[in-house]
Amino acid sequence: MKEDEIRGGANHVAPADAPEPVAPAVPNSPSTGMPWPVREITDPRELRALAHPVRFALLDLLASGPLTASQCAERLGQTPANCSYHLRQLAKFGHVTPAEGGVGRERPWKARDEGISWNSSGTSGVAHARAAESLSDVIEDYRFGAWRAYRARRPGEPQEWREADMSTDVVAWMTPEELTDLKRQMMALFAPFVTRDDDPSARPDGARAVRYFGYAYPGEEAP
């Protein structure tokens, strides 16, 4: 089962019986059908490095553009030293890289330009399975925390955004193959927006970084 997909930050993460992706970039990734490049993580150490609330928050923050450790600290309520440390740990595995300009803690960092995926089916060994589960827990906590934070500030958002946001659920009878095809179709819908990640000039006036979280799972079989 794939776990999650994340792009350029906490960007894109995806679960299932195969690897999981994280981050849009350009044309489709042949192996996943995602409209952005995807790299599969096979090293449990890298999964463990990602499985930290502050590091995942940093990745999500940088998904909107380069920031310095001090800027990250101000937005996350952390110290510059702590953010600098976690950014360096993420850099060891290529999840963030130095951006142009600045020095030391005032050096800006940018998120990776690829999605990530990992095998969470338990077939890659005990160490990998435990690391994947830890990362999944961090991701779930972050996603729902981010949604609750938005709900808290929602009354102050412009009406057009309140009307455009979404919280819904659907039940549909389908086979594993049909669900897989549905996932591919949904991801393909994001293709037209991929180039806006790294090119601010391509973003229309009023555009904001929108988080889209998706979960799909089969109901229990009847006894």
What does this structure look like?
By secondary structure, the chain is α+β, with helices and mostly antiparallel strands. The chain has one domain: Arc Repressor Mutant, subunit A (Orthogonal Bundle). It is built from seven helices and six strands; from the N terminus they run E-E-E-H-H-H-H-E-E-E-H-H-H. Strand 1 and strand 2 form a beta hairpin. The longest helix has 28 residues, at 126-153. The protein is globular, with a radius of gyration of 18 Å.
Short description:
The protein contains seven helices and six strands, in the order E-E-E-H-H-H-H-E-E-E-H-H-H. With 223 residues, it is α+β, with helices and mostly antiparallel strands.
